[in-house]
Design goal:
This protein is an alpha+beta fold. It has three helices and two strands, in the order αααββ.
Amino acid sequence: AVEEDVPKILEQSRGLFTASRLTKESMLDAAHVAGLYQTWIRNAFDDPGTYFHVAEYEGRVAGFWLNKLQ
């Protein structure tokens, strides 16, 4: 992935993490939790040890995944 992919990745990620422990926690605001995932993705993209992979279909982001080297 390249910097230009970040907005597309962030858009693709909206609403994906609905089954996580954080989203099921009743004491956490859903909008705040959604923002956490957006921040984590942005921070991971800026980490030189993390590699994003983007799958595209017909010119649009169809999915993404990342690998972090330790």
